[in-house]
Amino acid sequence: WIRSSRLGLLERIQALRKGRAGQKTNLEWLRAYAADIRDFQRLEALRDFLLSVQGLRLQAAGTGKRDPTPLNFSPFRALTALEIHDADLSTVVAVGLEPLKPRLERLTVCNSLEALKHLLAPELAREEDPQPWPRLVLANFSGNHLQHLDDSLGLLPALDTVILSRNRLSALVELPSWMGIATLDVGFNDLRSLEGLSQLCPRLESLSAPGNALRGTSGLERLGRLHYIDLSNNLVGDWEEVERLKELPALRELHLGGNPLSCASTYR
Description:
By secondary structure, this protein is of the alpha/beta class. Helix content is 19%, strand content 12%. Strands 1-2-3-4-5-6-7-8-9 form a nine-stranded parallel β-sheet, with no helix packed on it. Strand 3, helix 4 (117-120) and strand 4 (138-140) form a beta-alpha-beta unit.
């Protein structure tokens, strides 16, 4: 927690210097600063460095277990890319994320969430209107054991790439923010159908959906921009499902290995 840390102490001393503490500011600031001038000079240098950091990756020390240690992003005000692995953002709310919303462009959160709204819309817990993430183009929420998607994804209007692999999703919900998505990864979930995907993501160019329970390709034939499809390790057994994709004008790469039809002698 920043106010009990060394950087928090530096913050309070600077408040004295600027007259925000209601005391005899010049004298109090000089006394505090002079107590260990070298230490505070190093803290000032560290603070200035943290304020300039644009990319940050946080990884818990454990092996795959969620670490409940509270996270505080207040010192990082220039971040455009953030990765969080093996934290516990559903039980303990991270501090300092909301001021980063207007700036972040790439966000990766793995094995750290029970629901997306705990990260994307923390204002809801305070009964406030959630603010959007206007510049976020890549969102990676893989490996969180998510069972459903909530409306907080609608707060990401600039999305281009969404990664939701290795969760427990059985359906994809329609959200306005998905209209511009070009790359979608929903591999290793519990999806049984891709019907309606053309309405959900009409500009989709790349689809990865291996390791689900898909038996067909219905819904993909209307995605004229698709150039890459990975449906490996599903349950597709009928060649008519492949024939449906022949009309896709941009399709260049199709992966079907690990499906029942791949065992046929005519495969490939």
